[in-house]
Amino acid sequence: MLRQVTPGRYDAYEALLRALADPAGGRVWMLLWHGQAGSPDAQYGNMEVDGLGYAPCVTSAQELAASGWSRAYEVVTGQDVARALFPDRWGIWLNPHAPGGGVGIPWLDLRRIATGLDRMPAGPLRMSNPPSRSPSSTPCSRRTPTVRPRSAPCAAPGCSRRSGRRTWPSDSTSTTRARSPSTRCAR
C-alpha cells in the first residue's frame, strides 16, 4: 500500500491513513534514539523535512530488518503514536530507508487519526475570519431604521446642534416653549 502513495493519489493516501487508524492492525515500529521501549527516558528518533519535524518509523519487522536499525524500537498502534505526537506538532515518516525515501504523515493528519478520520475533513484547511454580513442583508435590518453617522454642527441660528452635540430640552421647557420655524434645524 505504501508504494501506491504518490503525489496526486489522494485515495491511496487516505487508505494509508485508514490503515494506520485501525486499532486492530495499524501498528508501526517507532525507532528509539535513546532508551528502551516502555522506559520513561525513551525518546523517538527525529528528522526534519521542509521545516517540519517527523519521527521515523517502519511498518513491519521485515522493514525494520531492512533498515539496518541497531538500536531499540517500540511497537505501537497508529492511534497511540498519533495521540502522542500531534499535540507537539510532530509527524511520522514511514520507512525512510525505502527507495524513494518513504512517506511522511504530517502532524495535521496525525491529528485526524487521533481524533477520528470521520470527524475531521481531508485535504488542506483554510483558516480565515468568517465572512461579514452586510447590515442590509439581515431580515431584521429591513425593519430597523438606519443610524446616521454623526454629522457636522448645524449653522442655523439658535440650533442646539451648533456645538456638534445634540442637547435635549428638559421636560418643563419643552412643554411651555415651542420653537419658531426660523430657529429650527433644517436637518
Explained architecture:
There is one protein chain. The protein has a domain at 2-115: Trna Endonuclease, Chain: A, domain 1, CATH 3.40.1350. Strands 1, 2, 3, 4, 5, 6 and 7 form a seven-stranded mixed β-sheet that branches. It has helices at 10-21, 61-67, 78-85, 107-115, 171-176, and strands spanning 27-34, 43-44, 47-49, 52-58, 73-77, 90-94, 103-105. It has 187 residues and is of the alpha+beta class. The longest helix has 12 residues, at 10-21. α3 crosses α4 (107-115). The relative contact order is 0.12.
CATH class of the domain at 2-115: Alpha Beta
CA(first)-CA(last) distance: 76 Å
Over the alpha carbons, how many angstroms does the gyration radius reach? 34 Å
Number of helices: 5
Major beta sheet summary:
7 strands, mixed
Average pLDDT works out at 76
Work out the number of β strands: 7
Q: What's the CATH topology name of the domain at 2-115?
A: Trna Endonuclease, Chain: A, domain 1
Q: Give the SSE string.
A: HEEEEHEHEEHH
Protein topology:
Elements: H1 10-21, E1 27-34, E2 43-44, E3 47-49, E4 52-58, H2 61-67, E5 73-77, H3 78-85, E6 90-94, E7 103-105, H4 107-115, H5 171-176
Parallel strand pairs: 4-6
Antiparallel strand pairs: 1-2, 1-4, 1-5, 3-4, 6-7
